[in-house]
Automatic annotation (TrEMBL):
One GO CC annotation: cytosol
Pfam families (UniProt xref): TAP42
Species in which this protein is naturally found: Monascus purpureus
Leader sequence residues: none
High-level lineage: Eukaryota, Fungi, Dikarya, Ascomycota, Pezizomycotina
Transmembrane segments: none
Protein name: TOR signaling pathway regulator
Biased composition (Basic and acidic residues): 15-32, 218-228
Region (Disordered): 1-32, 213-240, 304-331, 336-355
Biased composition regions of type Acidic residues, renumbered to the chain: 319-328
GO BP of this protein: regulation of dephosphorylation; regulation of signal transduction
Any one GO molecular function term: protein phosphatase 2A binding
């Protein structure tokens, strides 16, 4: 049956555009998305014309289909492949549309008894439970790898056969039987790829469904997440287990560590180096303020507990003139020291070098 030039031309144009899209690298650009939508529209128009012309019937076999009509069996597959690759904001809707086109493609081939034995078994598996279809067990990595390698080899062989027939297409034009072999080889390749696409779409839809039905976090949970991310609000909450040392020593959560006399006001851990402090943060029960020796000495220096220059301080504390008891005590100490020096001249206790 001769086809109207419009269908033949439209189908050839749509296939050429699809091949061009597959070789482009600007898949995220607006122009690419626009071209994909235009090509999808062409394939949908091809579908409409195929149905309008009643090219295929459930009451006939593939041998009864005219050679020139066989390529139109792939319209559904080509449209499904484009829908799967499209950038529709509603990803789930695009995947379900693609799924419907793949199903229509395989159903028609099954009607014409054009599926190989292995593909027929896969189609039966898919028909029994579409939502859980998989080429291999999802939780068995080794089996999935073996299946993937085997199908890759099969696809390579199908492509080589199709390429060979395509390269000899000029010679085949005069042989109707060889032309049919070329078209059927293309269908076999597309069928092989269709089952791989069904596997991928089923997995992606399963993930999208799980995300959609996941419980939404409450306001309380969101507040907790903000704290976990380390955000601080009026409460001064931080994800750090210990507040900064400056905060601890001023008006922080724990208050000052040492009194003016140098007595600890609360327990703390003294480490020999900062690396130990960092490593110890994640130990269970680590909740005491920590400081390195350097930080401890610095705080002692600020408090006045460390005398610079070595030895005892040369600066004597001033005595309150009104404190008579303190003045008498200092006078008695001075007299006792003078009497000791008179009774024990310098060197009097050294008898090692005397003759």
């Amino acid at each position: 049956m001769d086809q109207p030039q419009s269908l033949r031309t439209l189908f050839a144009s749509a296939k050429t555009e699809k091949e061009s899209l597959e070789s482009r690298t600007d898949s995220n650009s607006d122009s690419y998305r626009s071209d994909v939508d235009a090509t999808i529209a062409k394939f949908k128009e091809c579908q409409r014309l195929v149905q309008f012309l009643s090219l295929f019937s459930q009451n006939e076999s593939l041998e009864e289909v005219a050679t020139g009509d066989i390529p139109y069996l792939t319209v559904d597959y080509l449209l499904a492949d484009l829908l799967q690759r499209s950038h529709n904001p509603d990803r789930e809707a695009s995947l379900r549309s693609a799924l419907g086109q793949y199903e229509q493609y395989l159903s028609r081939l099954d009607t014409y008894d054009s599926l190989s034995n292995s593909d027929k078994k896969l189609y039966e598996r898919y028909s029994e439970n579409p939502s859980s279809f998989s080429l291999a067990p999802v939780n068995d990595a080794a089996t999935r790898r073996d299946v993937k390698v085997a199908r890759f080899r099969e696809e390579k062989e199908l492509k080589q056969k199709l390429e060979y027939l395509s390269q000899n297409q000029n010679r085949l034009q005069s042989d109707d039987e060889d032309v049919r072999k070329l078209y059927i080889a293309e269908i076999n390749l597309y069928t092989h790829q269709a089952f791989q696409s069904l596997d991928l779409i089923t997995q992606e839809l399963s993930m999208l469904t799980a995300i959609r039905h996941a419980p939404q976090p409450s306001d309380k949970d969101q507040a907790g997440d903000a704290r976990v991310r380390g955000s601080t609000g009026e409460s001064g909450y931080s994800e750090r287990l210990d507040a900064p040392l400056s905060q601890l020593l001023k008006n922080g959560k724990f208050g000052p560590l040492l009194s003016k006399e140098g007595k600890p006001l609360q327990p703390f851990t003294l480490l020999d180096r900062r690396s130990q402090l960092q490593q110890g943060v994640f130990r269970p029960g680590h909740n005491l303020p920590t400081m390195t020796i350097d930080e401890y000495l610095e705080e002692e220096r600020k408090r006045g507990g460390i005398i610079e220059g070595g030895g005892q301080s040369d600066v004597k504390p001033e005595i309150d003139e009104d404190d008579m008891e303190k003045a008498d005590e200092e006078t008695m100490k001075a007299r006792a020291w003078d009497e000791f020096k008179e009774a024990n001249p310098r060197g009097s206790g050294n008898t090692l070098n005397r003759g």
